[in-house]
Amino acid sequence: MKHSCLNSRMALFNPFHGILFICMSFSLETATEATFLNVSDRLALLDFRKLITQDPHKIMSSWNDSIHFCNWVGVSCSLSNGRVVTLNLESQNLVSSIPPSIGNLTYLTGINLRNNSFHGELPEDLGRLSRLQHLNVTFNFFGGRTPTNLTHCTELTVLSHPIWDREPYFSVLSSTSTEYTTRKHTN
Ligand SMILES: *[C@@H]1O[C@H](CO)[C@@H](O)[C@H](O)[C@H]1NC(C)=O
Ligand SMILES: *[C@@H]1O[C@H](CO)[C@@H](O)[C@H](O)[C@H]1NC(C)=O
Ligand SMILES: *[C@@H]1O[C@H](CO)[C@@H](O)[C@H](O)[C@H]1NC(C)=O
Ligand SMILES: *[C@@H]1O[C@H](CO)[C@@H](O)[C@H](O)[C@H]1NC(C)=O
Ligand SMILES: *[C@@H]1O[C@H](CO)[C@@H](O)[C@H](O)[C@H]1NC(C)=O
Ligand SMILES: *[C@@H]1O[C@H](CO)[C@@H](O)[C@H](O)[C@H]1NC(C)=O
Fold first, then answer.
1. Which option is the CATH number for 37-184: 3.50.50.60, 3.30.70.20, 3.80.10.10, 3.30.450.20?
2. Binding pocket residue ranges, ligand 3, CB within 6 Å
3. What are the residue ranges of CATH 3.80.10.10 in the chain?
4. Which residue's C-alpha comes closest to atom 6 of ligand 1?
5. What is the enclosing helix (H) or strand (E) of 85?
6. Residue nearest to atom 13 of ligand 2 (CA)
7. Which of the listed residues 14, 25, 73, 174 has the most CB atoms within 10 Å of its CB?
């Protein structure tokens, strides 16, 4: 984290002031809150935002430092520990991919990115989300294979894919095997 912050500080001379602002506010927090994982959640969300190349509805403008990340559009947090529990960015016309750091959001129980233009592969790091129950990625342009590491997500009951086309299917993941039983979603 320190390393990336130093890198961002070098961007001080870059006209992109957003980077400087983010980095400064993180530095202020470092002294008192570095041990709190909610700070790491915030960094992971900022990393997620960084990969978004198109955001026609400008929802990411709410992902700013004047409001707490638990109030950012699409983000909801646990009331008890302030950690991110769901990420719901359905039908926002976002063009992006999913960074490996999503695996840092270790309290996530649900991810819904349905109906956007996410591309690339689903990162193996999703396997670090041991509380994940719903992963809904239909209607996107994901490629590659489904991460085998998803078998570590033992709570995962609804894996809505396939990632290889834009048809709505329901997949039920068996925690004891790497195979997925896929059936057409009939609604
Ligand atoms: C993280 O949690 C601590 C302790 O509850 C709180 O004081 C702090 O404001 C939180 N920071 C963020 C960025 O949510
Ligand atoms: C994610 O966590 C890893 C390991 O704790 C850390 O090295 C990395 O900087 C974190 N990434 C982000 C974007 O916070
Ligand atoms: C931050 O987001 C809030 C909520 O969308 C918005 O009202 C506010 O203008 C934003 N602030 C900045 C500096 O963009
Ligand atoms: C996808 O999102 C667009 C708006 O972003 C909406 O018009 C469309 O109906 C959605 N399609 C599905 C299948 O949900
Ligand atoms: C795969 O999942 C395991 C178990 O959660 C985790 O320790 C490992 O870091 C994950 N692999 C990657 C590449 O993220
Ligand atoms: C996708 O996620 C939404 C919101 O969580 C849910 O209502 C919907 O049923 C999910 N679709 C499938 C096919 O699981």
1. 3.80.10.10
2. 61-62, 64, 66-67
3. 37-184
4. 33
5. strand 84-88
6. 44
7. 73
pLDDT in tens, 93-136: 999 999 999 999 999 999 999 999 999 999 999 999 999 999 99
pLDDT in tens, 33-63: 334 678 999 999 999 999 999 999 999 999 9
Give distance in angstroms: CA of 187 to centre of ligand 4: 16
Identity of the amino acid at 71: N
Those residues whose C-beta lies under 8 Å from the C-beta of residue 116, and which sit 6 or more positions away, are 89, 90, 91, 92, 93, 94, 95, 96, 139, 140
* Distance (Å) from CA 81 to ligand 6 centroid: 25
153-187 pLDDT, tens per residue? 999 888 776 544 444 444 444 333 333 333 333 33
Indicate the top mutation candidate among 6, 8, 39, 40 to test ligand 2's pocket, ranked by most ligand atoms within 8 A of CB: 40
Q: What is the 3-state secondary structure (H, E, C) of 62-110?
A: HCCCCCCHHHCCCEEECCCCCCEEEEECCCCCCEECCCHHHHHCCCCCE
pLDDT, greater one: 177 or 86? 86
